[in-house]
Amino acid sequence: MQLCFHLDHAASLPYFLEKTTFKGPVFMTLATKAIYTLLLSDYVKVSKVSVEDMLYDEQDILRSMDKIEVIDFHQTLEVNGIRFWCYTAGHVLGAAMFMVDIAGVRVLYTGDYSREEDRHLRAAEILQFSPDICIIESTYGVQLHQPRNVREKRFTDVIHSTISQGGCVLIPDEYWSNHPELHNIPIYYASPLAKRCMAVYQTYINSMNERICNQFANSNPFDFKHISTLKSIENFNDVGPSVVMASPNGLQSGLSKQLFETWCSDKKNACVIPGYVVEGTLAKTIINEPKEVTLMNGLTAPLNMQELMPPNIILVHGEANEMWKLKQKLITRFADRNTKIISPKNCQSVEMYFYSDKMAKTIGRLAENTPEVGETVSGLLVKKAFTYQIMAPDDLHHKLKQIFKSVESLPDEESEGPAFRVHERLTVKYELEKHISLHWRSDPISDMVLDFVVALVLNVSREIPKVVVESEEATKTEEENNKKAEKVIHALLVSLFGDVKFGENGKLVISVDGNVAHLHKQSGNVESENEGLRESVRVAFQRIQNAVKPIPLSVS
């Protein structure tokens, strides 16, 4: 699950999806997925990393898009019995807090969130119940933010003083509109990425707060009439006071770094860094050396945990010092409760144990009569994901017999207990009345029978399919069957070896890492100078042929 599009959350995703063995689904909100590809493509372009040292390229980013599924706020999805849904997190467009339900244990993973409504986004939602575990970001530790009007006044005071002395500074559009005496000062927007992302913000206008939604009915709130686009420093006429909003915010490269190096030696200029910056960037160095430049670092993330009282809190996504401060604050805050607070290190596993009553649903003949309170119900316990069902042992035998016809009961002396054989290939034994064991000799047909029986046991509450033997008139001709089998064989060989082409005289030409094998489909013979490839193709073809043959059904 992807919480938001910021690089500290999303930058590793292309590597994770394209360079590792992970094959599971990834879920994002629509807005996050829309900005994800724009942000990471820009990140690859501006990164000062050699091609050899790059973890991924733009093609990896584009391929990862096909593996990302979207989820809407409050939409419930289920994967392998695990249910999850997401809430609005504030912070940035599309940011989400995910609630994950695993066998009744609910885990809230906040990511970055904001409980304060800003100028365009709603605040993070307040949950109606407390989770069992809360995994919460701890970037700012215990720092408390100032009210927005105080922060904005500090900001605009610096703007006015800088402009009045002929300097250059960053400035917001709304303040400019209310001060016509400053209208002759040019404002530039120097971020191609932000310009492309602005189209996404206008697309998802319904995700904004009520003020922006109401304004959009009359005019576009993202149409900044006092701001011009600046493509590069070569197009910038650096004469007199001006305002430039430039990226990246860490000043590590690009136009923002160029302008800083040009302006930083003049005391009349101002550099405003409005958000969090990471270690190793020029912006972080500036913050650590306040005598060089006058900075505005009053913007902080709020801490608001009063609505939730989870018994377990896990702190992530923060520097060790700030995380420790937050942990001590939470220990004091929850001193009168039995709350477990954990701040694990990177890659450290956290194990928690939860105990709850498990309920099983009776099906089949066991469900015909309601048991009395305290009465013992005996049968086969079937588990699927986190749900349990109980069925009578005879029901399983009866349903298998309906499907396969060829189901034979075995004498007790032969099987040492109740048992039966399916299709003369698979033996099903009852173990201790509540368990069954399956025994078979592995080959393609027996494995397929096994898969069917396992699927039947795991889906006993559903309607059982029946095997229907078609009449001779409905049976396809041998030629049609052969054509269909050839397509299946070719597709399976492609999935195993990749490059499989049709050659002369009905041969298949298989190429792997420069080695070539010629497969005779009729005889199954393989010709290749590479012994390993020859044997791999021969065995694979033999197994595929056995697999595509129909299971011989017994109607007696």
Form type: extended
Question: How much helicity do the residues have?
Answer: 25-40%
> Which strands sit side by side, in order, in the main sheet?
3-4-5-6-7-11-12
**What is the strand tally?**
23
- Strand share of the residues? 15-25%
The helix/strand class is alpha/beta
Distance between the termini: 52 Å
Radius of gyration (CA) equals 33 Å
User: DSSP helix count?
Assistant: 16
Please give the largest β-sheet: 7 strands, mixed
Average pLDDT works out at 75
State the low-pLDDT regions, or none. 170-174, 290-307, 461-475, 551-556
Could you characterize the architecture of this molecule?
It is a single chain. The protein has 556 residues and is an alpha/beta fold. It contains 16 helices and 23 strands. The strands form 6 sheets. The chain has a 7-stranded mixed beta sheet, covered by helices on one side. β3 (77-79) and β4 (82-88) form a beta hairpin. The two termini are 52 Å apart.
Summarize the structure.
By secondary structure, this protein is an alpha/beta fold. Helix content is 32%, strand content 18%.
Secondary-structure blueprint:
Layout: H1 7-10, H2 13-18, E1 26-28, H3 30-46, H4 58-65, E2 68-70, E3 77-79, E4 82-88, E5 96-102, E6 105-109, E7 133-137, H5 148-164, H6 173-177, E8 187-190, H7 192-203, H8 210-216, E9 228-229, E10 243-246, H9 254-263, H10 282-288, E11 312-316, H11 320-333, E12 340-342, E13 360-362, E14 380-384, E15 387-391, H12 393-404, E16 407-409, H13 412-415, E17 419-422, E18 426-431, E19 435-440, H14 444-458, H15 478-497, E20 499-502, E21 507-512, E22 515-520, E23 526-528, H16 531-548
Parallel strand pairs: 1-2, 6-7, 7-11, 8-9, 8-10, 11-12, 13-15
Antiparallel strand pairs: 3-4, 4-5, 5-6, 14-15, 16-17, 17-18, 18-19, 20-21, 21-22, 22-23
